[in-house]
Amino acid sequence: MTAPPAQRPGPPAPPPPPRPRRPRPSRRKIARPRIRPLRERNPVAVAIAGLVLIAAIAWVAFNANNLPFIGGGTGYTAYFTEAAGLTPGNEVRIAGVTVGRVTGVSLAGNQVKVTFEVKGAWVGDESTAAIEIRTILGAKYLALDPLGAASQDPSQPIPASRTASPYDVTQAFNQLGSVFQQLDTATVAKSLESIAAAFANTPPAVHQALTGLASLSGAIASQETEIASLLRGTSGVTSTLASEDTEFQKLFSDGNLLLAELEQQQQAIGSLLTGTQALATQLSALVNNDNATLAPMLARLSQVTSVLEQNQANLNQALQLAGPYANLLGNAVGNGRWFDAYLCGLIPRSYGGTQPAGGCMPPKAGGG
């Protein structure tokens, strides 16, 4: 068989044509305006701009509550029959939680117009508002009860039919004092005495009642100055207590903290007593479970103590004898890594040994 003829390689492929180069856009240098340093500027203009900036910052700081995003919230208006001591700055609460503040109290005809702000709370179109007493010293706050199916329109005020005012006892006492000072008690007493004389022929019960009323009016007339002074003093006391409202609030707050701490300590003591009771229960169970083992052991321990008591004299004598023995043993082995020994009578006299004249005694006084 003959091999096929080898194929010759063809001519090489022509190289690819070069890609056309895109023309590069010319870069032009744009001249930027030179910013002049502050020292080269007009100092008067810089001072005016600084004062304007400081005034703007101060205005924003003092009116932060009125700003739309960080302010006090949505503004509402309510009409009351009387202010009852409500002042701007008092709290606005819903279910006891502070949600805003009162911004203004003014007279609108025969009604009182109260403006307030609420933030983070829903106010319905049938909501009611009431002026409540916050402390026993007469501090007030505005209480809202959010009712209704839709939201309250801020441009529509809450009418007086949906508002209520409290009865101020302090104002009533002040009015009573002023009215009592204007009362002519002597004339009233004489009038009551005349009425009692006119009813002299009436039944005894009516006559006694009128006589007692006349005596009462006479007593009031005789003590007019003291009663008026007492009422003025009451007014002064209430005014002083109202001025010390902050201190009383702090006192009540500290009292609440003290009661809370006592309550926590009470819980800790209760937990300690509960744990002690549980430990006693577990120890009782342990003793009951191991009673069969502990009883024989305690009986043997009692026998051991009895034997020790019987041999107490022997033990005392053994301890007395062990003391000198331990002393001699210490002297024998306390001179180094050997021990001293004395042998008497080992070598007879016939072998030339020497012995003490007084018998086998230690060669040194005191032994050793």
How would you describe this structure to a colleague?
Among the domains are: 64-167; 171-243, no CATH class. The chain starts with 42 loop residues before the first helix and ends in a 35-residue tail after the last helix. The longest helix is centred in the C-terminal third of the chain and has 45 residues, at 245-289. It contains eight helices and seven strands; from the N terminus they run H-E-E-E-E-E-E-E-H-H-H-H-H-H-H. The chain has a seven-stranded mixed β-sheet with strand order 1-4-3-2-6-5-7, with no helix packed on it. The chain has 368 residues and is of the alpha/beta class. Helix 2 runs antiparallel to helix 5 (224-243). The mean pLDDT is 75. It has helices spanning 43-62, 169-182, 185-198, 204-222, 224-243, 245-289, 291-310, 312-333; strands at 74-80, 91-94, 97-108, 111-118, 128-133, 140-145, 163-164.
Name some characteristics of this structure:
seven-stranded mixed beta sheet, alpha/beta, 368 residues, flat, 8 helices
